[in-house]
Input
Amino acid sequence: MGKPKFASVHGGHSGQFCLHATDTLEEIILSYIRHGFAWVGVTEHVPGLREDLLYPDQRQAGLTPAILYDKFAAYILECRRLKEKYASEIRIYVAMEIETYSGYREFIPSLMERFGPEYIVGSVHFVDDLGFDYSREQYEATAKAVGGPDALYCRYFDQQYEMIELLNPAVVGHFDLIRLFDPEYRQRLLRPDIARRIRRNLELIRERDLIMDFNLRSLLKGAQEPYISESILVQARELGIAVVPGDDSHGLDSIGVNMDKGIAILERLGFDTDWKTPVREELQ
Output
């Protein structure tokens, strides 16, 4: 067998359409080509639904849900243009990364109907409408508001399960993102109430034949392992779930970073590195 091909099931955020990213989408696509990627899913964030659900930096920049909606519409058009322009050099999937806050049950299907993405990445960045991944201070405040770290994990995995059941996302994004600012996450993931929810969610992912995003961005931020943690990866492998790398790039400086390291982990654990694609064969 040859060396596994580079691919990213979750990436391509650009400063053109995302406030916390850098560089233009076309520059990013050209970099994926230079890095030798066989395919990439460009998974821009969906627009915020309400003012109170925007990220702090979005509010500070004066962005509104209406502005973000228009920007997202422009993203879809530009990504489709680039998909056609570079079709002979790389396979591009026009996708989107969703949110799971109040109203998403109606909002996300409405976006899917209007914009027709090729797939969605089902991510959870809010617990009970409280963000947790913007900063350590935000994480700790949200944990306190919902009853402590264990309760935060339980609520996160419950919301993730509800989202998977409802939307059936082709890709489940950074499955254990909730561990982000928790130095005790390895032990916490094994606690019975949390471990039971993890197993339940994994079994639903297997039942729906979905892909799990092996998200490498955590390594850029100093974490010891990607999302998904190895204790969960082992279970995913036992269940026969497809796991595919995602560089979760937010600019030229993060494209393909740690891809070799991530692939090596998946090979060591026995995953198939002939990557499953997130789009049905007839759509490719």
